[in-house]
Amino acid sequence: MLSDIGLSRNSVVVGAIDFDENKTSYSQIGNDLNYVSVVSPGTYTFSEQSPVKDRSGKIIDYSYQASGTSFSALL
């Protein structure tokens, strides 16, 4: 949680949910002073759009997964 000094009256507190719309283990719900303002998915899997082949011609699946409340922040 952010300290009182880190929050302003106009702060937007972001939480993360998983694919089933449950709160993620790394997302908090707030305390007596501040509550989550908005939630959105916090885990993403990024992958190549087209197959990548190695030198022998074997297709390599490139995918990356990232998670955290930073991925839930509004853009």
UniProtKB/TrEMBL annotation:
SUPFAM superfamilies: Subtilisin-like (SSF52743). It comes from the Bacteria. InterPro entries: Peptidase_S8/S53_dom_sf (IPR036852). GO terms for molecular function: serine-type endopeptidase activity. GO terms for biological process: proteolysis. This is Uncharacterized protein.
